Amino acid sequence: MTTLYDPAVKTSDSDVDDYELADYDLDVVDDALLNPENSEFLDHFGFKIQVRTDDESSSDDDSDFEAEETKANNNKEVPVPTNRHSLSATDKSNISSSDDDYSVDTHITTPPAQHKPWPLTVDTSAIDNNTTRSSHETTSTSTTSKSNNRASVLSFTGFSNPFKRPTSTATLSSPVIIPRPSQSFHQRQSKRYSETPPIGTPRSPASTQKSFNLLVSKFRRFSHNDHKYDSVKHTALKEEALQELIQTKEAMPEMNVDWDFWVLVISDFGRVIETQIDDLRHHLTQGLPPAPVHGLLWQIISKSRDSFDMEFEYGELIKRSSPYEKQITKDLKRTFPDHPFFMQEQGRRALFNVAKAYSLFDQEVGFCQGLAFIIGCLLLHMEEEDAFCVLIKLMGKYGLRGNFTPQMDALHQQMYQFDNVLQQKLPVVHRHIEQEGVTPSMYASQWFITLFAYRCPVELCFRVIDLLLVEGTQVLVQIAVAIITRNQETILKLSFEPLVDFLTNGVFEVFENNENDFIEDVYRVDLPARFMARLAKQYSGESARESRSTSQEDHLRRVNGQLSEHLRRVESSLNTLEKEHQEMTKQTVDTKMQMARTEDEKEQLKHELAQLKADFEKHQREIHQYYQHQLQNVSSENKQLHDQNNTLATQLSETESMLINMKINFAERESEANRFAAGQSIEVDDGTHSRLEAEYPTRLNLYMKPPPSEVTIEEFEIFALDRLHVLRFVEDMTLRNKKGPELKMEMDKVLDKYLPMKSNFSNSPDLYQERRKDHVSHFVLRMAYSRSETLHEWFIRQELALFRYRFDQEPLEQKKKFISSLNFNWETVKEEEKKDLKKELTVCSSWLTSRLGNTSINTFIENETFFKVDFAKVPDLIRSRHVFVKAGKAYVPMLEQVSLVLREYKGHLEDSLKVVARVLGRVEEDSRLTPILLNIEKQYTGKNYDTERTGGSDDVTASDVERLVQQHAPLCMRYIQDSMTREKHLKHGGRLQYGLFLKAIGLPVDQALLFWRREFSTITDDKFQKNYAYNVRYNYGLEGKRVNYSAYSCMKVITSSTPSTGDHHGCPFRHFGQPNLEALLYKDGLSQTQVMEISQLAKDKHYQLACTRHFEAKHPQVKGIDTIQHPNQYYELSKNLTKQDAESEAMEVDL
Q: How far is 1126 from 116, CA to CA, in rounded Å?
């Protein structure tokens, strides 16, 4: 069997650049021995040298191969080795009796696998004179005779003669060895490969391999063919492997492993290849040491760490994106799908990384599924980087890359060799398979491309890689023949479909848990290297002939198609030209006739045009005179009206000032009179008035500064809840689209109750405390609503709406006072500039006509104060075209100050909320404030239903519950009741929400126990008492902490945990999907319009308003109720309406 390894390299102290003639001559010989499948090689001068073997010079008839080989072995004399190899007389006599010998002259004779690898000595005189012998030949002969002869594994038929190795390394022969290939050869070879071939040059399998070597060459900074010279990384790898071997030996002393031999393999694998190959093959039949030593041995044998940059290159490659990532991801689940390592994310990720890295490294190959199985086997023994390096060696040094290139030359060659070997070795089986119509491509292609890993047991795959690393790719054909040999009896019994299925899936079952027999069967297959090389050349010849034939036919077809297409285009062009010629002739005749008619029309039009010009000039003069007269009249009238408007505006302004002064005086007198009547002193001032003027000069506040005074915990919570009530009411009014007097009435009622803000004219003693409460409550809610973007948006939206309402209610003087205190950088438009832009300002202010009443636009422009601000600050006014923009400045009237102020206020709120969010952690360190800040937005601000009974003082019995719930309860409680009635059970969340609701409507504890027992009718009394009765009493404060728990508010129901499968608690408007909610609303008897309106409110996250709309739809006799904030509020309102309707009907009956 041929090996991938050459004899050891002898060190030399001479300069590597001093090449001898022998070095140059042996370049071709070394290249031919390394690449026996090629027929042409380049010497260092660039000349092509054709090399053929003795076998190739003989007859090409495969059937006479063995006879010719026997004849050649018996009759041929041993030629004297040329160049660097020479033998002594004793050696020559020994070799002459062998089957074949080495010969390097005008052609190369491949040494047959069954020969003993005789050590060769150096004799420089043998290059020119075959008869001359050096004096050291005798020493070489004697040394060689003492060495252990290695019988070829291929020639034996069984394992009766075990492999032997010397008991001591001291007995091994150590002749002077010639380095083959030499270091100088590698330098020239690397230089030759670095030259890029011309674009368009056809690439043969050999050139494809060389291009891959060129790709890898930049990583070969320290690389030799043998194992005599190791890089620093490879030396470290050996040390690591030795340590792992020692640890494994200590951990598994009972294992039947020749530890000493594997120590020798790790330490000097090159020496083992040279002198103890038979022992190595014998140990391969018994298997390599277990992991992790197994994987380290693969790296040592392949010399995967002889590069300094490959691991770094791998790290860079996995950072890049590969066009094959989608295909790699798709194939991950199909690669060893049942192996535990690849069922985990870590294994799949490692496989993905290595496959992606190689697809980027070798872009001609890219990725295919078979490559994933090879990578998978490597990853089961080593890390990603090591697997990538070993994969590079397998693809390059071992020639597996040819199986994955687009042409798959190596794969087709292996299948060709396999088919011929099978025909020679097993003619009966081959004939049967051929008769059934089964070809090697149906089953053998997946063997070779995946290294038998597609259906092979994973342990058997590891043994295949062992053989591949030691013996080379030729062993793959031996493995395939061994598999067929072991299964030949079964194969002969099968027809087409069962045969194909067996060859692809069942052939490996005979080797299950019997890997050693598998290796022995492989070594029993005898495949001479010359025979395999001849098959390879035959395949190349047939492939080349077929390619040339196909190329010629394709060329003729292409030329024929081009000529046919050209003929069709010419015919089509001819037809088109004929049609165009006919059309052009017709158009020419028509054009001449049209030109004659056009000349006649032209003369007529000239006459008509002259007459029209005369009439037009006459009418133009008349119109000009008329409009001049009308314009003079209008200008005179406009001047008179302007003077009248100025006079009226002046009078109106004076009247307004007088009226304001009168109101102020009246309010002051009234306040003094009230205080005098109450017995209060009028002149007493405790400093509150001065603080009021300093801190809160007006009712309007942008909350630029925090509250200056101390705040108690009670004030902290109460103030925040009151303001929260107001903001929620503002949201409700906005959603209900309330405006005008109705909005003012409702807002004033709520503000007077929760956030009263009297004007400065009232002289109320509570002004400071009212404005302090407003100030403190804003900052508390600012902290509470700074924890998320959603809370930010809600808080800013409601605060802006509240500020706009307050700003609109303020008198003009208070607005001006407030604006002046803000110190905004607003530039007032001067009178001269306003006069210059009067026309533009008039046009932009025309929309104010409805708001000005009897005041004209011109008067408004003259009396109004305009500000110049950056246009970006008033996008809403620009969007509605309500302001004039010039040079990046918007001219805003004082009437629209609120837009400017709101813009500034919104920006301030957004910035301050972000600042508060960053420092909120330090505020929450105070355990007194944390519960308030975390839960305030969830607080229920309505009526408390912990002790009060909803809808009257009468107790509710267990029999009344279902009827009352169906009539008066909200949708959430009715859904819980329906689900419990249907399933005869209710989970804890639903029991807690529904039980507290029933408690609040007046269901006593004894009736509650009776009600729950009736509903849970499918369980026993004992189970009910153990599992459910305690919870009922607990809700009523009779067990546990004995706390009187309140019923859940709408906010608590909405923000509670989301119901999972089997749960029925929660809010339907919040937790139901839109289709389910609409179905429930239709079931409740609502119309399509009502359902769509409620569904849209729920979709916009206005859940409580959706519930309110549902109440109004179910009770059409009421409109405009307060927003539903509690399920018991819904129940109470519904029951009260029913009671009122019953009383009204009773009164009508009495009447």
A: 99
